[in-house]
Amino acid sequence: MERQDFIRLLSPEGQALLAELGPIEAKADVVKLVSGLRAKGHDASLVAAVLTQAKLRRRAAAKFGPFAERMIFTEAGLEQASRLSVAALHANRFRQAGITEVADLGCGIGAESLAMASLDINVKAFEIDEVTAAVATYNLSPFENAFVEQADVTQLDLSKFGGLFFDPARRELGGPARERAMRKFDPAAFSPTFDFVMEAAAKKPTGVKFGPGHPHEGIPENAEAQWVSVDGDLVELSLWFGSVARPDVKRSALLITGNAKHEIVSHSTQRQDAAIGELGKYVYEPDNSVVRSHLIGQLAEQIESHLFAPEIAYLTSNKKIESPWLKGYEVLDNLVFDRKKLKAYLRERNIGTLEIKKRGSDIVPEQLRKELSPKGEGAATLIVTRVGDAHRVLVAQAIR
């Protein structure tokens, strides 16, 4: 968002127009809306800013619920912001540890600060970008216990705060530097840098939010690491230090489904793999929080299942298992992966609707679907993977 757009949104005309327009439906005729607003004499730049904001508010409802209706968003800020339900869990860590003042370092549009302020924690939020800091100030204005300042967090005296929360941004990289950053963990690619954050975390109770793909080798031994999934969508890895970390937990996978929470924990940083055995009648796809946290061994033990290929995160059993951690499929056929034979198989069985899943295979599902050109009234799931050491395709149907 440009500075002038934010100023336009804060104007009496901008605020009135936002309230009048409300969230825009996904299928709304934007051209008609623009024409109507321009016909009423509204400035073109204001109309563009308000319409953009209305679209962002509609998207933000998935993360912020009814709070989204009164907030202002930037595209990047909304993308990086925590879901309010997850931010509330972060905030509760500090409250349970008895910490009454927290510095939100790199606060973005203010999601974490909003959750902390809602739990009566005094929040000092810092953001280096001027417009984003202004947006956070607007979003936190209902809370007297939240204060926002535009600042470089590396220049602050952090010793005066009871607790710290970091959400480091990935620096924009181009060319070979971007390729290197994609291939391996680069501590210098964060802002503030990973080393700066870890040094601060060694001195204060600290929470740090990373993307869920953050590598295990980038997790310090003294941290509690938690991978969080919301309704099957893997959203983050959070690291916890000091009194906001649970002393008996080193790794955990947390699944939030509606109002329920499910967790698998480990007291060790060591990976525990599941046993490998024969393919059973059913195949189960674990939630990605379990896969990323390397806790699939613990899950397999709990549900009495096993892997059917090394390093392939599918579990199998001859019994039907109901678990919030799993998507289950009944195996109908186990075929050699041959495109020509597979196409004939689908045609013979009148299968026209395909869900294509893969692990341990370099196929592109969309391209494979195009090559198979399925036609018919039936439906099936294809799981392209390894069974033992063989490249196979499992024809399956979802367990309802």
Reported by name, the CATH topology of the largest domain is: Rossmann fold
What would CATH call the class of the largest domain? Alpha Beta
CATH second-level architecture of the largest domain:
3-Layer(aba) Sandwich
Report the count of strand segments.
18
CATH superfamily of the largest domain: Vaccinia Virus protein VP39
> How much is the radius of gyration in Å?
25 Å
Report, as a whole number of angstroms, the end-to-end distance: 44 Å
Question: How would you describe this structure to a colleague?
Answer:
The strands form 3 sheets. Strands 3-2-1-4-7-9-8-10-11 form a 9-stranded mixed β-sheet, sandwiched between helices. It has 14 helices and 18 strands. Helix 6 (84-96) packs across helix 7. It has 3 domains: 3-64; 78-266, Vaccinia Virus protein VP39 (Rossmann fold, 3-Layer(aba) Sandwich); 282-398. The two termini are 44 Å apart. Strand 8 (224-230) and strand 9 form a beta hairpin. It is of the alpha/beta class.
How do the helices and strands line up, and which of them pair or pack?
Blueprint: H1 3-10, H2 12-21, H3 30-39, H4 44-64, H5 75-80, H6 84-96, E1 101-105, H7 111-118, E2 122-127, H8 130-140, E3 146-150, E4 163-166, E5 169-170, H9 175-183, E6 190-191, H10 194-201, E7 206-210, E8 224-230, E9 233-241, E10 251-257, E11 260-266, E12 282-286, H11 288-292, H12 296-303, E13 306-307, E14 315-317, E15 326-336, H13 339-348, E16 351-358, H14 365-372, E17 378-387, E18 390-398
Parallel strand pairs: 1-2, 1-4, 2-3, 4-7, 8-10, 16-17
Antiparallel strand pairs: 5-6, 7-9, 8-9, 10-11, 12-14, 12-15, 13-14, 15-18, 17-18
